[in-house]
Each structure stands twice: as C-alpha cells, then as structure tokens.
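pinned: reference chain
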Amino acid sequence: MNGVRVSYVANGQLIEEEYRYLVDFLNDVVKDDYVDDTIDETNPEVDVCGMKYCASRVLKELDPIAYSMVRDDVINMIAEDIEYELNHYSDVEEFEGYKITPIDSDYDADEEN
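pinned: its structure tokens
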C-alpha cells in the first residue's frame, strides 16, 4: 500500500489528510487508553502483596520503554488488520471514527502530508 487518505469530521467540517504510511496515521490517533485496554484484555492483573493492578499500569510505570514497544506492536497489529481489510474486502475501512482509503498507485511517495 502506497499510503492512505483519512477523512473525518471536525467542528462540522469534513477533513481529509494523506499519510505516507498507515502507521504514521495510527501513531497520531491511537490513544494510550486503547493500548491499555489491549494489554489488559490479553494479560492478567498483577498481584503485589495482595493488591491487584492492571498489567498496563504496571508495565507503563515500571518499564516505559517496554510499554512503548508494546504500543508499537499494537499499532502494527491494527495497521495489518486495516491493510488486510482494504486489500481483500473493501475500499474504505473505519477506525475510531476515521474513514481510511488507500491512495492510488500514482501517489508520489516522496510527498509529505
């Protein structure tokens, strides 16, 4: 995929932006809450002296570098899912209120958004 066009409504206006790579867009819009939910859904709570803590909170506070790496992994998984859907099933994919469409192959990959 050469790039993506993302459209969304902000303040009643339709906004369209182009991104060279899908992960660039996702890095801009994926919130830590989304990442935290993903971590917490796939990992058990951590027990410390009888107190229970969410795995995402423990990871974020004890090892921010590891948390950042997991965040990158989550974003890459989302990107792979969206790319698969765009390549196999539809011309438009939605994510968190954004409509994502692939940019035609004549898109100049050297352009910046």
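why pinned: The two ends are 16 Å apart (CA to CA). The mean pLDDT is 88.
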